[in-house]
Design a protein that fits this description.
It is built from eleven helices and 13 strands. The chain has 319 residues and is an alpha/beta fold. It has three domains: 104 residues, 3-Layer(aba) Sandwich (Cobalt-precorrin-4 Transmethylase, domain 1); 92 residues, Rossmann fold; 95 residues, 4-hydroxy-3-methylbut-2-enyl diphosphate reductase, catalytic domain (Cobalt-precorrin-4 Transmethylase, domain 1), CATH 3.40.1010. The protein starts with a strand and ends in a 30-residue tail after the last strand. The mean pLDDT is 93.
């Protein structure tokens, strides 16, 4: 069996930073550390951090007074920040720097007097956090049809920002529709779109040219992992989203060239677990599809620099 690994796969710099924050907080402050929402959307990652002493909650009221609190990589609204401040919770913010950049871009557009549009998925924690960070009315746009339905005059100056787990390709049709409808549209530079999302999607499109079937390692509630699977299907290649090797169906891959990748919140250990599951079906020859090698690193909060992880870090991602 030929297995072709996407070069650009798995943990992005944002996820590495977020998991390192929890690891190092445990090393510095001891357990328990409380994390609002899943630090990233992957059950294996969350369970591993739970085993080290992290406790995940959805509401700050579940956190005891004075307990060290981590905000997840998806970001939170200002009301959550205010509540943590009122309760005196010491906070470590693991919000992805690219998500924080979206927050700042949106605030600047509003200050310019523009009506703000957010391109993203309703209910996603990143979208909820972004909408909670910016004053005034924000119009959520999920489809081109949503653009047509906007109750905004065409001569009103508008601006858009996007959910980071959407790529340039994902948003292009909506942005084109906005520019066709409104006479004055502003938005972020194309270089501000999340590099990790774009790189992983580009890699899947290349895999689809070589593979008979594509396996995407990631969680069912991971937006970017689901999109990788959708891209494979759109390219005409049967594609399956699996959490780990235990979910592999041998009928999908028998006699096939298998393309293998992972969403931005899936650690490399899960990719290796899938390869091990493939080897149980039969002999496997693994090659790596050339692609972008990411060298981006985001700084940790000052309080945690120089602190070692409580145990071997989840962020270790061998090439």
């Amino acid at each position: 069996m030929q297995v072709i690994l996407a070069q650009t796969r798995g943990f992005c710099a944002c996820v590495v930073r977020a998991t390192e924050i929890v690891d190092r907080a445990l090393a510095k402050y001891g357990e328990p550390i409380y994390v609002r929402h899943q630090i990233v959307h992957n059950k294996h990652v969350v369970d591993a951090l739970k085993s080290k002493g992290a406790r995940f909650v959805e509401n700050l009221q579940e956190i005891p007074p004075g307990a060290v609190t981590v905000f997840s990589a998806h970001g939170v609204g200002r009301s959550v920040e205010d509540e943590a401040r009122r309760r005196g919770l010491p906070v470590l913010d693991a919000t992805c720097p690219l998500v924080a950049k979206v927050h700042n871009q949106g605030k600047n557009f509003v200050k310019q007097g523009r009506t703000l549009l957010l391109i993203g998925h309703a209910g996603h924690p990143e979208v909820e956090g972004t909408m909670g960070q910016i004053d005034g009315t924000i119009h959520l746009v999920q489809t081109v049809a949503d653009v047509d339905a906007l109750d905004i005059a065409p001569d009103i100056p508008v601006a858009y920002v996007t959910q980071t787990t959407l790529s340039v390709d994902d948003t292009r049709a909506i942005i084109d529709a906005l520019e066709a409808r409104f006479s004055d549209v502003a938005g972020p530079d194309i270089n501000d779109i999340c590099y990790a999302t774009q790189n992983r999607q580009t890699a899947v499109r290349k895999l689809a040219q070589l593979a008979d079937v594509i396996l995407v390692v990631g969680a069912q509630n991971s937006s970017n992992s689901n999109r990788l699977c959708e891209i494979g299907v759109e390219a005409g290649v049967p594609s399956y989203l699996i959490a780990d090797g235990s979910e592999l169906d041998s009928e999908w891959v028998r006699g096939a060239r298998v393309g293998l990748t992972a969403g931005a919140s899936a650690p490399e250990a899960l990719v290796e677990d899938v390869i091990a599951a493939l080897r149980r079906i039969g002999p496997v020859e693994v090659s790596v599809l050339p692609g972008v090698e990411e060298n981006v690193q985001f700084r940790l909060p000052a309080k945690l620099r120089g602190v070692g992880a409580a145990q071997p870090s989840l962020a270790s991602n061998p090439p």
